[in-house]
Amino acid sequence: MWPPGLPWALALLVTAASSGPSADAADRASIFADLSPAELRAVRTFLMERPELGLSPSQGGPLAKNTLFLVELLPPKKRQALRFLEHGGARPPREARAVVFFGAQAEPNVTELAVGPLPRPGSYRVLGFKGGRAVPFWARPMTRLEYELLHEALVAALAPLEPLLREATGFGFRNCSERCLTFSDIAPRGLGPGERRTWLVIQRFVEGFFLHPVGLEVLLDHRDPDPRRWAVRRLWYNGRHFGGVRELAESHARGALPLARLPEPPARRLFSSYEPRGRFGTPGEAHGAKVCEPQGRRYRLRGNRLEYGGWSLAFRLRSSAGLQLFDVRFGGERVAYELSVQEAVAFYGGHSPAAMQTKYMDAGWAMGASSYELARGVDCPETAAFLDAHHLLDADGPVRFRNALCVFELPTGVPLRRHFDSDFQGGFHFYAGLEGRALVLRTTSTVYNYDYIWDFLLYPNGVLETKVHATGYIHATFYTPEGRRYGSRVHSHLLGNVHTHLVHYKVDLDVAGSENSFETMDIRFENISNPWSAGERVSGDQGRGGTGTPRLTPPLTCPRYHLAVTRRHENEPTSSSIYTQNNPWDPPVTFENFIRDNETIEDQDLVAWVTVGFLHVPHAEDIPNTATPGNAVGFFLRPFNFFGEDPSVASRAPVIVRPLDPPTCSRLEIRRWTPASAGPCVHPEPFTYNGTYRQV
């Protein structure tokens, strides 16, 4: 199990002081802002009108066509950005990254383009991957059109199994009204390069259908761009393998097949629903504690620029991979150029084919664009500021995602620091404390069954915390006795499969400039002679410093490393890609190549690649959903001898109490720098929610 905090500290050697800002803060941040709906439409219109590209609308038509799959901001090169941010240089040209599926040609492929300048694009160029790697067409992410065709092919192929499914489950694929079957697909889609064969888990389509597998899994080959050539290759039913649909149907017709008969689902209080059932021993109908801002917001939000206490940063929500921070400063000085989510993976074990094959890599499912509406008072406090997001992903125009991000100040419930100075005579010399607060920037990714809650927390003492909570439905399969080796029986016909969550981050630290070094500190036990008592010995810890890379595990993929530090290169912007999920064997972005060059990392522009994660052994309490307590991981960026003292001494929120008549302590001096009373709290506004995301 990965620890929630990594046992290392980053200490970067300061080599130069950064210069002061040269432009308005909000204007500086805008070079990192996500594309507006108008910019997204302009890029799409420009590319659709280029005759040499031959693009068709994304929706409808055949798979073998040229389509625009994704449009998002292409961040400026770091050197250009710093020249603008620090030295009054020219504003970097604003460009878009466009992903095009070229399916209507002899050698189908996926090509990425840089399109600009925005807001009125007039040209494009091909964006290459390091080493000139190409993206084959079979490695492309799934689209809505392919899912529609997959469903049609599955329904047609399983027609001979309709009697079996009706008898065993009471549900079917044809003429089913409200008693339909559905499926979840798993990945990778094959066992080697060039394959696009997907195991589909058949489920009842009821609320929380992820927890309602019926015991049937189907391997469907859909590599050919022509769906008429798609075919079912294998099936697994109730613990047995079958070579084809006819073999399974005939086994059922002969009465030789043990059916997995499922009970009728209840009309109300289904075990996979959120409907209350049972009762606590104490009344629970009243509202619980709330967050309030009695004197208003203590942070400033201007566009994509966020300021709080000594902190300032720019942020964006990438459609491909999620939250990305830029130009992170404390006290006006940059501490990080970029801090971003790179990848979230989940490796499963199991007895059924789908379970043993599942290795989810969520950038391949565009986890950044899965940023659905946050509920006020549940996902974020009522006091939070909410922001919309706009994505152009597998659509014929930008789609608005309401309230996809939120910002709020959070009482941590524990003091940032405090001390009670006892006089050891029943009184005290003084008490002093500083309330614990942090500013939270939050979004979520609902990647089918799982919900990830992504947080960046800013503390007044110069500490930045990165955290992710895992919740939502577990990825579960049909229970068989053999499956108990790979998980827990969490319901009558349901196996919760054991799996490991790993999340990868990019941390481009710039401490007092871009030229930094990396140092680790180890602690060892030391036994020495006592210098003030002859013949006695004392023991203690001794710190040891060293430069260079830390000990790393065998050279596998990026999530295998707790921490890796590399030189920053413009052609290594991300550690993963949207293509890794469907081509993990030879992906266009291979993190191992980042560290194989064995470059020096002393006094260079460095990037720390951080992996956090945990092992999840599902249990009955994961029904209906995995709860957030105990399922959160992250890491901290902490100053280490960077300041002369704790920078939170600048806060005006401490309380200092001193007795005026020690040791009696009957008269006290209470010093505060904030109003004596916090005032009224939560506004009595009713709960509202929209939940839609529409093309705009």
TrEMBL record:
Enzyme class: oxidoreductase
GO biological process, one term: response to antibiotic
UniProt keyword terms in alphabetical order: Copper, Metal-binding, Oxidoreductase, Signal, TPQ
Cofactor, how bound (note): Contains 1 topaquinone per subunit.
Cofactor(s) it depends on: Cu cation
GO terms under cellular component: plasma membrane
Active site: 362 (proton acceptor), 450 (schiff-base intermediate with substrate)
Domain of life: Eukaryota
GO MF, any single term: copper ion binding
Protein name: Amine oxidase
Organism: Hirundo rustica (Barn swallow)
Gene that encodes the chain: Aoc1
